[in-house]
Sequence to fold (363 residues):
Amino acid sequence: MTQENGSVAMSPQQEAKMRKKSWFAWLQSVAGFSSQIVASTATNTYTICVALIATQLGCTAADLAIASSLFGATYAGFSWLWGNLADRIGIRWSISLAPVWVGVGFIIISLFANSIVSYAILCALAGVGMGGVSGATLSTAIGSWYNTNWRGKGMILVNMGGNAASTIMGIATPILISNGWQGAYMIMGVAYLCCGVLNFILFRDSPAAIGTVPFGSPKGTMPAPYEKKAQMSPEEKAAEKKVKNEATIKCLKDPMTWKFGVIYAFWQLQMNSNKAFMVAAVVAAGIGDVAFGGGLMAGFSFAMLFGQPIISFLGDYFPRKYVFGAGVLAAGCCFVAIWFAFGAGNAAALPPIYSVLGFVSGT
Fold:
């Protein structure tokens, strides 16, 4: 029997065998978990090492802000490159090469960064690879592996990767910096290489690529036809490119894109500024050492680990703009409290404040 889309109907036994492979979706989430480890801890490596780097290079943490800015700029600026690369060679290759790029970059930083200039340039080069492990890339790639009602659950596992790794990283700060900041960058660089290899082993381009359907699809759903881009005719490639360009233009014309983009830019500014200088601020204020700052980072990340799914759950039951607004307001109150705690030299107040900030940052 032939279906309307031209596919041949399966017997119950054949469908059961085909649907067993849809469990492969959870391995894609594990690969996403691995990618988020890179996306989150790469910034955190700078956070826990910035005071040590400044001391060795004979500068201040503020002087090193240019390196953090360049890292973020290439991270954002080259995201489009990884998106185009995924279209050409497949998401499996791009999501595997990106952690390897960052890992090699961190290893080179550990070996050759001996001045502010060289450190900033190498950070910028390493940041290029970060676009390939961004949340936007992962949500699109991994989302295709789940039916609509399972997509959020699959992404929760992905999002947990960065926060779980950041929590462990904060706790393990004394071990990471035991051989100096170069040792920390070397350890994280090797870890990212391992993440890239793991991604290549686990990830596949789509359910259709292995002859199955998205996890949670209704019974009777047939696998979509799968055709590699190399097998597409020039006309088909041109038509696909035209559709994508039209979708991009439509998105850019939508006022909501720009409204949300501005809000998100300000949100990321406070988030990344806080994370980048959390440890350096503690050390500079004389409130604690690098290990204490790492503990604050661990508490912040551990709280966010719970905040993301809980706030996401609340967004399904209350208007999202109110949930988002409440989260932003709470974050603002936390920053005011941090300002007072630093002014008073009250180290004991910082852990609970940063934990609350981490929870609401799950917004």
Observations:
- The two ends are 49 Å apart (CA to CA).
- The longest helix spans residues 24-57.
- Confidence is low (pLDDT under 50) at residues 1-6.
- The CA atoms of residues 84 and 90 lie 9 Å apart.
